[in-house]
C-alpha cells in the first residue's frame, strides 16, 4: 500500500496513479477496502486524487482553448447551431466570417458571447490567427 505523501517526481506520480487504479478496481470486503491508517479507502482515494491533480496542474497544465474553438465547442455541447449566434454576433454572413477566421471578434461580440453563452471572457480575448484573404 502506497504511503500518502506529496508527489515530488514522475515516479511518485506513476505510483499514485497505480494506487488510484488499484483502489478503483478493489472488490468490496477485501483488504483494499479496509481502513488503512484509520481511514477508509474513499478517504485514501480522495487524498490521492487531490495529490495527483496538484501535480498535474503544476507539471501538465492545460492551455485554454483558442476563441473560435471555444465558441464551436459551446455550440456543439449545447446543441446550438450557427444560427443561434446571429443575435449575439450579427448577420449569418458575419457569423460565418468570424467562425471562418476571416474577421476578428469585436469587444462587443466578446461581451455578448460571455453574457449570453457563458463563454469565459479570458478565453475569448486571446489572440488567434485569421485566414488571409486570397482575393
TrEMBL record:
<protein>
    <submittedName>
        <fullName>Transcriptional regulator</fullName>
    </submittedName>
</protein>
<dbReference type="InterPro" id="IPR039060">
    <property type="entry name" value="Antitox_HigA"/>
</dbReference>
